[in-house]
Amino acid sequence: MAKKFHIETYGCQMNVADSEVVAAILTAKGFEHIKDKNEADIILVNTCSIRENAEQRVRGRVQGFTEIRKRNPKLLIGVMGCMAERLGEKLFEEEKNINILVGPDAYLDLPLLIEKASKGEKAINIELSTTETYKEICPTRLDETAISGFVSIMRGCNNFCTYCIVPYTRGRERSRSHNSIIKEVVDLQSKGYKEVTLLGQNVNSYLYKEEENKVDFPSLLELVAKTVPNMRIRFATSHPKDMSDETLAVIARWSNICKSIHLPVQSGSNSVLKDMNRKYTREWYLDRIDAIHRIIPECGISTDLFVGFHNESEEDYQQTLDLMREVCFDLAYMFKYSERPGTKASKTMPDNIDEETKSRRLQDLIELQSASSLESNRRDIGKTFEVLVEGISKRSQEEMYGRSSQNKVIVFPAQGIEIGSLVNVTVRKCTSATLMGEMLTD
Ligand code: 5AD
Ligand code: SF4
Fold it and tell me: Nearest bound ligand to CA 160?
């Protein structure tokens, strides 16, 4: 009988895409994917190391599987992804429940690791690669809605922001061939998907070289837009230093490329940005925001920020608030600095902002962002947006919801509209988190 595996995914969208690659690798070897972990022979947890609390959550989860193992003593527990890479063998010692550890570049080895673990041995492969892109693997889609899918276009990161663990857990940057990307996008389309998000740690530095030929990010984006004119295209994440006018022009030119850009700023202070090794200044960032407004009017803009990095003074922090007021982001993901062992900051830049200050700064940041989101949403009242319908509202059977090109969620009264269809909705009301509107019928 086929062995059954279950995958639980934490962390970024890249991890969601990787879990689908792993599902494809295992399915091809005769394993069966199941949704109920209680029925599984193998439970895999795809993990994140970005902040200490992300790792704590996974440890709690892995410890919780003890109950399932009591019922099924042969259960294998595997930890994959960034935590496996960062902690290696140490994780076997710290979490006795774990049988398998596999890093982000070693997923093709997973069937062998499972075989080894089922003989009672500890199985580990955390080798990083400079070339692995899993380009031959057509991912098994695990998402049930089958509307919006991810395609990874590059792996790893070369930026070495001083606070960030990613270059250590995901290794060096490498771009996947445009042909294999296009093949995967077309496959999504043939399966009925209406939207694709091109993924990478730093998508706008995408560069694929093949003999004389070079494909950069704007060319790739245009190629995808041209190939699947009826699909919506999104991409994440962009680094401000690589956000070129050329990329913005491609987004403006193609109606199927969503008018939404996620551009993590991290801090509004030049001295903090310098310590972070972000390679841009506040002025550069604001110039890129101006360029977005100029080239793509009506573009949604979101960001990531974190407070309490090494030496962040009250003045530095005020600069961040000030930048947020100036840009008025539609959406922001906000965090407290969490020191990650092994990073440059952990070695040379003491984590010297106390917890109380971090919490207060984060709280004020969240409040300011909530006001910005509300302001941005209020500006949409009276406007009509094309919405890709994603489902029935959790609050009411009589309402459906979807997303605008700008990546805002819009709820509207409707029944029986096919999920995955495009409808026009006029916004009538809003909160800071959601737009509410009426569908246009004609
Ligand atoms: N501490 C807190 N936040 C971090 N991020 C990355 N590393 C850290 C860290 N050590 C945030 C950044 C990044 C997002 C994915 O997570 O804002 O853009
Ligand atoms: Fe977390 Fe970064 Fe790894 Fe994604 S790449 S799982 S965000 S540490």
Answer: 1
Q: How far apart are CA 413 and CA 109, in angstroms?
A: 49
Which has the closest alpha carbon to 407: 285, 235, 192, 209?
A: 235
410: which strand partners? 402, 435
Cis amide bond preceding 133, omega within 30: no
Q: Report whether 11 contacts 47 (CB < 8 A).
A: yes
Going by alpha carbons, the residue nearest to atom 16 of ligand 1 is 50
User: Using CA positions, which residue lies closest to atom 18 of ligand 1?
Assistant: 304
Residues shown for the chain: 442
Amino acid letter at 75?
L
Number of the ligand 2 atom closest to the C-alpha atom of 10: 6
Residue 166, ligand 2, Cβ within 6 A: yes
Contact predicate 185/196, CB 8 Å: yes
Tokens of 139: 């991912």
| Strand order across the beta sheet in which 32-33 lies | 32-33, 4-9, 42-47, 76-81, 100-102, 123-125
Q: What is the mean pLDDT of each run of 10 residues along the chain (442 residues)?
A: 95 96 97 96 98 97 95 96 98 96 98 97 96 95 88 97 98 96 96 97 94 94 98 98 97 98 98 98 98 97 98 98 98 98 98 98 98 98 97 93 98 92 97 96 72
DSSP H helices, 121-177, are 166-170
**14 contacts 156 by C-beta, under 8 angstroms:** no
Ligand 1, atom 7, residue with closest C-alpha: 164
Assess whether the C-beta atom of 152 lies below 6 angstroms from ligand 2.
no
Residue nearest to atom 1 of ligand 2 (CA): 48
Phi, psi of 123 (to 5 degrees): -120, 125
- Tell which atom from ligand 2 comes closest to the C-alpha of 104: 3
Nearest ligand by distance to the CA of 84: 2
Ligand 2 atom 7, closest CA? 12
Q: Tens digit of pLDDT for each residue in 146-158? A: 899 999 999 999 9
pLDDT tens digit string along 168-202? 999 999 999 999 999 999 999 999 999 999 999 99
Q: Of the bound ligands, which one is closest to the alpha carbon of residue 201?
A: 2
Structural domains of the chain sorted by starting position, each given as residue range(s) with its CATH number in brackets: 4-125 (3.40.50.12160), 148-378 (3.80.30.20), 384-439 (2.40.50.140)
**Residue position matching structure tokens 């506040």:** 282
Q: Is the CB of 266 under 6 A from ligand 1?
A: yes
